[in-house]
Amino acid sequence: MDEDSAVVSSPGPVWSDPEIPDEERAVLLVRLLEDPTAREDEQKKAASALELLSGPFVEAALMRAIRDSDFNSVLAQHCAESLGGIWSRTGRVDPAFTAELRGLAKDEDFGILGIRAPRLLPPGGPA
Predict the structure, then answer these.
(1) What pTM was computed for the model?
(2) What is the DSSP string of 10-36?
(3) Is 40 helix (H, G, I), strand (E, B) or coil?
(4) Collapsing DSSP states into helix, strand and coil, what is residue 91?
(5) How far is it, in rounded angstroms, from Cα 42 to Cα 61?
(6) Nearest to 105 by CA among 58, 73, 59
């Protein structure tokens, strides 16, 4: 895939086109999530769509976005929700990042885990 083919001007096909392989979809969505010129609504949609994917690349991008948003923005909440969804589906969490979570992102992530996979919550629960 060349550099120009990964540019996303409209989010529609990225999350709905069944012909885009998951690996390419992940790259396109992460680029949109990390694009400082992207509209906030597009970034939130990209963050939400990433929940349907998984792997170290996707998880690292969501964690970066949460940190970059200082754990408390609406975008951080969307990213944390997706991360919680991925962790619930895969049955594992990143303990170091879980310990780092705070603010709205922590509330969102722990809320998703509490509903979908409470066994993955750290000891002592979502305090």
Answers:
(1) 0.86
(2) -SHHHHH-TTS-HHHHHHHHHHHHH-T
(3) helix
(4) coil
(5) 15
(6) 73
Predicted pLDDT at 15: 67
> How many C-beta atoms lie closer than 10 Å to residue 1's C-beta?
10
Contact indicator for 114, 126 with CB cutoff of 8 Å:
yes
Q: How far apart are the first and last CA of the chain?
A: 44
d(CA 37, CA 89): 31
- Residue indicated by tokens 């949109």: 32
Residue 92's nearest CA partner among 68, 113, 65 is 113
* pLDDT score recorded for residue 14: 72
Whole-number pLDDT of residue 126 = 56
- Contacting residues for 66 by C-beta, under 8 A, at least 6 apart: 76, 79, 80, 83, 101, 105
Distance CA 78, CA 62 (A): 9
Helix 74-90 and helix 40-49, axial crossing angle in degrees, nearest 10: 10
Contact 74, 53 (CB under 8 A): no
pLDDT digits (tens, 9 = 90+) for 42-53: 999 999 999 999
